[in-house]
Write a structure and sequence with these properties.
By secondary structure, this protein is α+β, with helices and mostly antiparallel strands. It has 11 helices and 37 strands. It has a domain at about 350-615: Rossmann fold, CATH 3.40.50.1820. Helix content is about 20%, strand content about 35%. The two termini are about 20 Å apart.
């Protein structure tokens, strides 16, 4: 059995990228238990040079990085999990290290890497007003910041054309309506072209090669997000290119070198769904899949020529590996395994299952089982072998809540299964990728129908004989933490113990402590979650902190002190309410963390405590 630390230690190497000229590759690897950036050369024979360390961060891991040009890498990091990321840059020889956005309390985001404009990138900063982000062109050689447009207070995003010009803005108007604004060039003012309710989606994904039209993902007039061709100046839909009956289109693939739309992508239940518009791209994908017939393959990065690629190859039983791929010769070179100490044959599969709710919603879910269990999956339904004992079960609702669980490797799932627990994850109503109706079915349903989807799934597993009704725990983070607390408040008979990780406990205080850059979306959140005034009675009824007297089982809570999304007060008030009643509650606070624990030693502490807690109570 693997040690706990082997599941949650930092990857050996990960986040591989390739330089625009294809002559270097980069990756992140541990240094003093923090993830830092390294680079190494690669020659025409696909031979790798000796890795060279570029960054030496020891307080907190780098959050992300990218190639700015062939000679410079930029990276971001925050302080103690506050999510106010700052941007830094360094050249490949270690020279010219600089901080580009060293502003206290300011968050930096990348808008466009401006791949075809050396030495320049577009970034967003909420420096002028903490509630909104202004777009700037950053000169990486001089550090000069040029303001491209002053955010009037409601712009939430931007789209550039192929020449890096800021052409599209996305805004919130009247609190709950969204608007697309457009301009032909950067000398013009933005003008509104489409106004919709926030429940309707129009996303100008990418300009066509001539910068005249856009490929858009939209659900206007339909339930599922489709890929369409639109006129950006009018918002008129010109042609539907692809839609799927079951799933939303989530992304597209484009060749900058060939200036062609290649494919559209849906997540799917257990395998991705791709629709190709380009025959060459389809043949290339078939070649790649032939190398790894039972694995999921992703293009991690390509150079400007698109002849040199980095592949990520993984499945549900391995953290994955990176490969260098030379497209013209179909040559593959293994670069690194992310976690070579994890052996695929020792891990367990993640089974794609599905069930139907009492109001006839189809819920896609995942069930992972300890090795040696006597459970079969038949047509998406689990069945325990007759005469065999049911299993202790960890119910693990995802965060978001407007996100989703995916088929693939999960360190948490594999760890829990290795300790003898089955793990149940479900894409309850509101999970993304299933269309507008499924999403809207979650609005104002925190603690109600969304919670029922979880409860009914658990009862279904009990009835199937898989889950032991006397040994069920619930564990989740963020919204999953809220669902954990709601589960033990509103269905206390169902759970033996619970673990809440940075979860919401009081819907009133949650609304009052959101980050400043969420405030323009507050009216939208009122429609999605509930209005503290108009829906006061409902929010009071579904706030676990106000119903702590219903909790009967032991609870473990973990919280980052600097969490900007779910304030520490959410956990504090729940702990206080339980201790006042004499209910057993274990409370872990990390003063150098935010929304989740990122430092390795803190992850170890959390999962050690989780293991002890579950062993004692389940």
């Amino acid at each position: 059995m693997l040690k706990l630390e082997d599941f949650f230690r930092n990857p050996e190497r990960t986040a591989y990228q390739i330089s625009p000229d294809g002559r270097h590759i980069s990756f992140m690897a541990p240094y003093k238990d923090r993830m830092n950036v390294f680079v190494q050369s690669i020659n025409e024979k696909s031979q790798l040079g000796i890795p060279q360390q570029l960054t030496y961060e020891s307080e907190r891991s780098i959050s992300g990085y990218m190639w700015a040009d062939n000679e410079r890498i930029v990276f971001s990091k925050d302080c103690g999990g506050d999510e106010n990321h700052r941007l830094f840059g360094i050249k490949l020889d270690g020279s010219d290290f600089r901080s580009y956005t060293d502003f206290e309390g300011v968050k930096t985001s990348i808008i466009d890497d401006l791949e075809d404009i050396p030495g320049m990138i577009l970034i967003g900063l909420n420096r002028r007003n903490p509630e909104v982000f202004d777009p700037y062109r950053l000169n990486l050689d001089t550090g000069e910041l040029t303001l491209l447009a002053e955010n009037p207070g409601n712009y939430q995003g931007w789209t550039t054309d192929h020449e890096g010009r800021l052409r599209v803005a996305y805004a919130i108007v009247d609190g709950v309506n969204t608007q697309i604004l457009y301009r032909d060039n950067e000398e013009e003012e933005f003008r509104a072209v489409i106004t919709t309710n926030f429940k309707e989606e129009v996303n100008y994904c990418l300009f066509t090669p001539d910068n005249r039209l856009v490929w858009s993902i939209t659900n206007l007039g339909r339930d599922k997000n489709a890929l369409v061709l639109m006129d950006p100046a009018t918002g008129k839909e010109l042609e539907e290119l692809f839609t799927h009956d079951t799933y939303d289109i989530t992304s597209i693939s484009y060749s900058r070198r060939r200036k062609k739309l290649l494919s559209a992508y849906c997540t799917g239940h257990s395998r991705p769904i791709r629709h190709f518009f380009d025959e060459e791209a389809r043949v290339r994908r078939e070649k790649l899949q032939a190398h790894f017939p039972d694995k999921r393959i992703g293009i991690a990065d390509t150079d400007r020529s698109e002849e040199h690629c980095l592949l990520f190859v993984g499945c549900d039983r391995t953290q994955g590996a990176y490969y260098y791929y030379h497209v013209p010769t179909d040559r593959l070179v293994h670069i690194a395994d992310i976690a070579p100490w994890i052996r695929q044959e020792e891990m367990v599969p993640m089974h794609a299952i599905r069930y139907t709710t009492s109001d006839q919603l189809n819920i896609e879910a995942y069930l992972s089982l300890p090795k040696g269990t006597d459970v079969e999956i038949i047509n998406g339904e689990p069945r325990l072998t007759k005469g065999k004992a049911p299993l202790p079960l960890i119910v693990n609702p995802h965060g978001g809540p407007w996100a989703r669980d995916y088929w693939g490797f999960s360190s948490e799932v594999q760890f829990l299964c290795s300790r003898g627990y089955a793990v149940f994850q479900m894409n309850f109503r509101g999970s993304t990728g299933y269309g507008r109706n499924f999403l809207e079915a979650s609005y104002k349903q925190w603690g109600l129908k969304m919670q029922d989807d979880i409860t009914e799934g658990v009862k279904w597993l009990i009835q199937s004989g898989v889950a032991d009704a006397q040994r069920i725990a619930i564990y989740g983070g963020s919204y999953g933490g809220y669902a954990t607390l709601a589960g033990i408040c509103f269905t206390p008979e169902l759970y033996r113990c619970a673990i809440d990780y940075v979860g919401v406990s009081n819907l009133f205080t949650f609304m009052n402590t959101i980050p400043p850059y969420w405030k323009p979306m507050l009216e939208m959140m009122y429609e999605q979650v509930g209005d503290p005034e108009k829906d006061q009675e409902q929010l009071a009824a579904t706030s676990p902190a106000l119903h702590a007297d219903r909790i009967q089982c032991p609870l473990f809570i973990a919280q980052g002190a600097n969490d900007p999304r779910v304030n520490k007060a959410e956990s504090d008030q729940m702990v206080t309410a339980l201790k006042d009643r004499g209910i057993e509650v274990e409370y872990m606070v990390k003063n150098n963390e935010g929304h989740g624990f990122h430092n390795q030693e803190n992850r170890f502490d959390f999962y050690r405590a989780m293991e002890r807690f579950l062993k004692q109570h389940l």
